[in-house]
Amino acid sequence: MGFLEKIFGKTKESNKMSNVKLAVIYYSMGGTNYQLSKWAEEGAKEVGAEVKVLKIPELAPQSVIDENEGWKAHVEATKDVPEVTLEDLEWADAIIFSVPTRFGNMPAQMKQFLDTTGGLWFHGKLVNKVVSAMTSAQNSHGGQEATILSLYTTMHHWGAIVASPGYTDPVQFTSGGNPYGVSVTVGQDGKMIEDVEAAVKHQAKRTVTVAGWVKKANQ
């Protein structure tokens, strides 16, 4: 066992979790969080999960989107990605959220969707969902950790189980070391600065693994 594994532990995420249903729910303007979501999908499928990648409905008017070429291009490129519904939340055993920061908080689009989950919450439909979150910002200290924690605040009210990556794998250090969830800095050219693909896949596998444990315990 390596030094880092002795300190932080090592989960066995290679076991297949073919009965786990994962919803990867994202909001993205330029494509970063969409890419994070696709990596999460790949990682989860590697351990046998059934995965849906779903986007948050857009609140901005089309006229505003059309004024930003990058935003407009991304919207067009992902037009066939289905929008998330409350039925998707009920379907999922596990949920990974991926959103950019907005002043150290989640975007209004994500908050608006979460605010519609009151009915599911009231009937206990969100209890014991296994959840995790990822984010991006243009600065390494641009509110990345706060944004993830803002999502987890809602998850605690759901009665969900937060499966943060912590330091369960050395890959966390190569991607910036955020224990709450993968976060990435995006340069002015729209490209990710840190190499986070492996960390995203690890986080997805860990989320699916924990969801498998929870699901098995409840059977």
Automatic annotation (TrEMBL):
Residues 22-208 form the Flavodoxin-like domain. GO terms for molecular function: FMN binding; NAD(P)H dehydrogenase (quinone) activity. Pfam families: FMN_red. SUPFAM superfamilies: Flavoproteins. This is NAD(P)H:quinone oxidoreductase, type IV. GO terms for cellular component: membrane. PANTHER family: FLAVODOXIN-RELATED PROTEIN WRBA-RELATED (PTHR30546), FLAVOPROTEIN-LIKE PROTEIN YCP4-RELATED (PTHR30546:SF23). Belongs to the WrbA family.
